[in-house]
Amino acid sequence: MSASHGLRFDGSRFWVMHRQQEYGPFDYQWSSDLRGLEMIYQGEKFGEHCSENQIYADLKEFRLPQSVVAVGSIVLGCMLYGIVNSLCDEERRALVVQRLCEHGYERFAESCRDSGAA
Q: Which of 2, 6, 35, 98 has a beta carbon 3.0–4.6 Å from 111's, enabling a disulfide?
Protein backbone atom coordinates (compact mmCIF):
# COMPACT_ATOMS: atom_id res chain seq x y z
CA MET A 1 0.00 0.00 0.00
CA SER A 2 1.14 3.50 -0.77
CA ALA A 3 2.26 5.41 2.30
CA SER A 4 -0.50 7.96 1.75
CA HIS A 5 -3.35 6.21 -0.15
CA GLY A 6 -4.67 2.66 -0.39
CA LEU A 7 -6.93 -0.03 0.97
CA ARG A 8 -6.41 -2.65 3.67
CA PHE A 9 -8.61 -5.74 3.88
CA ASP A 10 -9.33 -8.18 6.70
CA GLY A 11 -12.01 -10.64 5.64
CA SER A 12 -15.09 -8.64 4.68
CA ARG A 13 -13.84 -5.54 6.52
CA PHE A 14 -11.68 -2.91 4.88
CA TRP A 15 -10.05 0.41 5.69
CA VAL A 16 -9.36 3.33 3.37
CA MET A 17 -6.00 5.05 3.76
CA HIS A 18 -6.20 8.69 2.67
CA ARG A 19 -3.38 11.21 3.20
CA GLN A 20 -1.69 8.87 5.67
CA GLN A 21 -4.83 8.52 7.82
CA GLU A 22 -6.81 5.28 8.00
CA TYR A 23 -10.64 5.33 7.95
CA GLY A 24 -12.80 2.35 8.77
CA PRO A 25 -13.60 -0.35 9.06
CA PHE A 26 -16.21 -0.50 6.35
CA ASP A 27 -18.14 -3.78 6.36
CA TYR A 28 -21.49 -5.35 5.55
CA GLN A 29 -23.89 -7.79 7.17
CA TRP A 30 -27.14 -9.45 6.21
CA SER A 31 -30.24 -7.60 7.42
CA SER A 32 -32.22 -9.31 10.18
CA ASP A 33 -34.84 -10.52 7.67
CA LEU A 34 -32.07 -11.81 5.34
CA ARG A 35 -33.62 -9.89 2.43
CA GLY A 36 -30.94 -7.25 2.16
CA LEU A 37 -27.38 -6.34 3.02
CA GLU A 38 -26.60 -3.60 5.51
CA MET A 39 -23.60 -1.34 5.00
CA ILE A 40 -21.59 -0.69 8.17
CA TYR A 41 -18.99 1.94 9.10
CA GLN A 42 -17.22 1.62 12.45
CA GLY A 43 -19.92 -0.76 13.64
CA GLU A 44 -22.83 1.54 12.71
CA LYS A 45 -25.28 0.95 9.88
CA PHE A 46 -25.15 3.72 7.29
CA GLY A 47 -27.05 2.12 4.46
CA GLU A 48 -28.80 -0.88 3.03
CA HIS A 49 -29.01 -2.73 -0.26
CA CYS A 50 -32.50 -4.22 -0.57
CA SER A 51 -32.54 -4.89 -4.31
CA GLU A 52 -30.90 -3.70 -7.49
CA ASN A 53 -33.32 -0.76 -7.49
CA GLN A 54 -33.33 -0.05 -3.75
CA ILE A 55 -30.10 1.18 -2.22
CA TYR A 56 -29.77 3.68 0.59
CA ALA A 57 -26.52 5.04 2.00
CA ASP A 58 -25.61 8.14 4.00
CA LEU A 59 -22.18 8.70 5.55
CA LYS A 60 -22.69 12.43 6.36
CA GLU A 61 -22.73 11.93 10.12
CA PHE A 62 -19.16 10.58 10.03
CA ARG A 63 -17.75 13.74 8.36
CA LEU A 64 -15.34 11.78 6.19
CA PRO A 65 -13.24 13.29 3.40
CA GLN A 66 -15.05 13.08 0.05
CA SER A 67 -12.39 10.73 -1.38
CA VAL A 68 -12.90 8.30 1.52
CA VAL A 69 -16.68 8.35 0.99
CA ALA A 70 -16.26 7.75 -2.75
CA VAL A 71 -13.66 4.99 -2.43
CA GLY A 72 -15.48 3.29 0.46
CA SER A 73 -18.74 3.39 -1.49
CA ILE A 74 -17.17 2.01 -4.66
CA VAL A 75 -15.43 -0.85 -2.85
CA LEU A 76 -18.43 -1.73 -0.70
CA GLY A 77 -20.73 -1.50 -3.73
CA CYS A 78 -18.50 -3.90 -5.64
CA MET A 79 -18.39 -6.28 -2.70
CA LEU A 80 -22.19 -6.31 -2.43
CA TYR A 81 -22.56 -6.69 -6.19
CA GLY A 82 -20.14 -9.63 -6.02
CA ILE A 83 -22.14 -11.32 -3.26
CA VAL A 84 -25.50 -10.85 -4.97
CA ASN A 85 -24.10 -12.04 -8.32
CA SER A 86 -21.91 -14.87 -6.94
CA LEU A 87 -18.60 -13.48 -8.21
CA CYS A 88 -15.44 -15.27 -7.12
CA ASP A 89 -12.70 -13.36 -5.27
CA GLU A 90 -10.67 -12.75 -8.44
CA GLU A 91 -13.70 -11.36 -10.31
CA ARG A 92 -14.64 -9.15 -7.37
CA ARG A 93 -11.08 -7.83 -7.07
CA ALA A 94 -10.99 -7.06 -10.80
CA LEU A 95 -14.32 -5.23 -10.51
CA VAL A 96 -13.03 -3.12 -7.59
CA VAL A 97 -9.89 -2.17 -9.52
CA GLN A 98 -11.87 -1.41 -12.68
CA ARG A 99 -14.44 0.79 -10.90
CA LEU A 100 -11.83 2.67 -8.86
CA CYS A 101 -9.85 3.42 -12.02
CA GLU A 102 -13.00 4.46 -13.93
CA HIS A 103 -13.69 7.06 -11.24
CA GLY A 104 -10.15 8.41 -11.00
CA TYR A 105 -9.02 6.57 -7.85
CA GLU A 106 -6.14 4.59 -9.36
CA ARG A 107 -3.89 5.30 -6.37
CA PHE A 108 -6.31 3.31 -4.17
CA ALA A 109 -6.63 0.50 -6.76
CA GLU A 110 -2.89 -0.21 -6.60
CA SER A 111 -3.22 -1.78 -3.15
CA CYS A 112 -5.87 -4.19 -4.51
CA ARG A 113 -3.55 -5.26 -7.30
CA ASP A 114 -0.60 -5.66 -4.93
CA SER A 115 -2.36 -7.55 -2.14
CA GLY A 116 -4.73 -9.73 -4.12
CA ALA A 117 -7.50 -8.62 -1.75
CA ALA A 118 -11.05 -7.35 -2.25
A: 6
Between the CA atoms of 71, 74, 79 and 84, what dihedral angle is there, to the nearest 10 degrees?
A: 160
Residue among 105, 96, 44 at smallest CA distance from 75: 96
> What count of Cα atoms within 13 Å lies in the side-chain half-sphere of residue 15?
15
SS3 (DSSP) at 65: coil
Distances from the Cα of 52 to the Cα of 10, 15, 33, 48, 110, angstroms: 26, 25, 17, 11, 28
Rounded-to-integer distance, Cα 111 and Cα 20, Å: 14
Instruction: Please answer whether residues 53 and 36 qualify as being in contact, where contact means their C-beta atoms are separated by less than 8 angstroms.
Output: no
Give the bridge partners for 40, in sequence order: 27, 45
pTM: 0.89
Mean pLDDT of 46-66: 90
